[in-house]
Structure formats: structure tokens, C-alpha cells
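Entry type: protein chain
Record version: 2
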Amino acid sequence: MKNSFATLILFLLAFSVFSQKIGYEIYGTLTNPYAEPYSLLTLDTLKEARTLSDINTRYRSNWVARYIKVKVASICGEESKKAMSTDDILTPAQMNILTTTDVDCNIEVEVDYIPENKLKDNPPRKIAFSLRMVPIYEAKYPGGQQALKVYLKENVINEILAGRDRQLELAKVRFNINEEGHVSDAEIFKTSEYDEIDQIMLKAICNMPNWSPAKNREGEKIIQEFEFSMGTALLRCDYKY
């Protein structure tokens, strides 16, 4: 997720240790983009969002020659709100819908447009996608995404791969970042099946420096749960590494 150093941290590495490769990632459990069928939004994303591409990284504005209308709507049970525009720039009314929608509501975006092509017959088309709001400012690791990548590489991946010839399908640690920014309640959520590897993961997570804690819409500090995952099962072909 854009502009969120702690919510979305993905760093896949290829190591040649007896032909073994391990991927790893760390997300908030409520903001893991692979856990939901919808694209996710946090208040971090919306803080600097100006266009449709800012709220959905898969949206491609270069497909559009001319906009007809753009509808942003929130659907909460039987209650719905919508705001219209004529281009991909989010209006104040559309931003208000995005920033005030609750986690239990869906956000629907519809784009009616003329495609960018040279076809003689070029009728209007529609792009539609769904979003889900997670109304928090996520906790952030000191130094941001790159610093966390380096920490995990040095304290987990390198330690595990050094001199080991083992298949590691998937292992997970869950932990909280509390209101003071401290790591708390760390536990093995899915064992690696090797006690020493489980201990390496727990030690690295528990010894992390203090984070900037998560906040809600009112700016109050809140607890956020994260999950650290690693294993050959996380080597995704749609990411470069």
C-alpha cells in the first residue's frame, strides 16, 4: 500500500544455499492485501491521495482517452452515499466518502470512459473496482520500509540460511505494536517445524526497536497487530526479486 512503511513491507530475496529460496513479508493482519478480495485503503494512503491511481495501484489512467463520469460510492448495508466527477482527480465529496467510510462498508468505484486507442469503432467502456477501508494510520518502523528490510534480512533470513539445507514451506509470527510503540504478545502462529528457527524469528521480532504506534481517525494511539511470514511458499512469481 502506498505511503505506508509499516502496513505493507515486502522484500523477496533469492539466496543460493543448497538451491533453497526463501521469501518473507510483514503486514498488519487487517491490512494484508493478500487476505482480502478487495484492494485496501488506510488513512495513510488517503492522506496524500489525489487520483484514482493513488487509491488503486492497479488502475491505469493511460487506458483512458476521455472520461465520461466517475462514481465513488460507499455501501453500508442498506445505506449508500455517492459522489460524481468527470475525471480521475478525486473531488472533495469523493474524498469525504473515502475518509469517513467504516471498515464494515464497501467502496465501489465506477469509471465510464472512452478508451485510448485508434480503433474506428471506439464505444464507451466501464471500469469497476471495489475497495475496503481500514480506518487507521498504521504503526511505522523507525527508518521506514528500507530499514525494516535490512533488519529482517540480517536478523532472520541470514541467520536461518547460514549453513542450513532445509526446506521451509511457511512459518509465521504474530505480534502487537502497542500504544507506546513496543512489541508485545509475540507468538509463533505457524511453526517452521524447527525449534531453533522459531526461536530466531521470535528473538528478532521481540528485539526490534520501538515503532511509531498506530492511530485512529481521532489521532488516539491504538494497538495494531502484525504478522511476519516467511518460507518458500512466499516466493510469488508476480514480484521481482
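Comment: Residues 39-134 form one domain.
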